[in-house]
Amino acid sequence: MFAIASGALGQNPDGSSAALWAATGRAGGSSIGAYRSLNLAEYVGDDAGAVAENRRRTAGLVGLESSDVAVMGATHGAAVGVVSAGGTVPGVDALVTDSQGVALLALAADCVPLVLADPGAGVIAAVHCGWRGLGAGVVGAAVATMRELGAVAIEAVVGPAICARCYPVPAERTASLRQALPSQISDVACIERSGTSFIDVRAGVSAQLAALGIAALNVDVCTNESTDLFSYRRDTVTGRQGMIIRQ
Ligand SMILES: [Zn+2]
């Protein structure tokens, strides 16, 4: 098992796991050089054949084939795609499905990947959220779409992301987030210390989930500090890890 974390949300009446998820890191893949080794993104300059093999292995973590995996072409917005089959969905930062046997994959390298499920209702989601997505409200948009499809009791797992200490930003960035977000969210996401601004995207995502009544597990590792993970801030030319979920 090369995933850095994995688990299940909920149980079927027969005792089997309802929604399986996994978070990947750098280990276990076929890419070389800056993309070593489990890069899951096609758009970062890596060899396409290596990425395809890495996606095949990642689909296998949840017992599926590459063709069953829906992956978002993230744009740092709040658009949500509802899917019923595998494939690339451009222009969205969240994917939702109520289909069985379809996996959803969110890619990131410092931004927050997260997965959500209401196993009882049979609705799952995967989300990519950086500081822009936090302000744009992609987490709330994904949850609203899940609820439209019948989700009631939603659980979440928040994946590896850059920590606040490693994420100093221009002051304009926290200022724009404070304008976009209610203070109960921006007060935890935006940090000003010794004249420098920092963003804690993970804390912001967790606060948004809590405000929606959703409890979350955390895969609490900093991408910038762990050499087991891809970090755009650290390496610039690098791969993307992922979080995958299926029911
Ligand atoms: Zn850090």
Identify the quaternary structure here: single chain
Count of runs of 4 or more consecutive helical residues: 7
Which segments are poorly predicted (pLDDT under 50) over 5 or more consecutive residues?
none
Major β-sheet profile = 6 strands, mixed
Residue share in helix = 25-40%
Q: Could you give me the name of the CATH homologous superfamily? A: CNF1/YfiH-like putative cysteine hydrolases
CATH architecture: 4-Layer Sandwich
Provide mean pLDDT, rounded.
Answer: 96
Q: Report strand order across the widest sheet.
A: 1-2-15-7-3-5
- Separation of termini? 19 Å
Order of helices and strands: EEHEEEEEEEHHEEHHEEHEHE
Large-scale geometry: globular
Q: How many beta-strand runs?
A: 15
Keywords: Hydrolase, Metal-binding, Transferase, Zinc
Family: Belongs to the purine nucleoside phosphorylase YfiH/LACC1 family.
GO molecular function: copper ion binding; hydrolase activity; S-methyl-5-thioadenosine phosphorylase activity
InterPro entries: Cu_polyphenol_OxRdtase, Cu_polyphenol_OxRdtase_sf, Cytotoxic_necrot_fac-like_cat
Task: Describe the overall structure.
Keywords: Hydrolase, Metal-binding, Transferase, Zinc. By secondary structure, the protein is α/β, with parallel strands linked by helices. It has a single domain, classed as CNF1/YfiH-like putative cysteine hydrolases (4-Layer Sandwich). It contains seven helices and 15 strands. The chain has a six-stranded mixed sheet with strand order 1-2-15-7-3-5, covered by helices on one side. Strands 4-6-9-8-10-14 form a six-stranded mixed sheet. A hairpin with a 5-residue loop joins β1 and β2 (17-23). α4 packs antiparallel against α5 (183-189) and α5 (183-189) packs antiparallel against α6 (201-211). It is globular. The two termini are 19 Å apart. Zinc ion is lined by residues 162-163, 165-166, 222, 224-225.
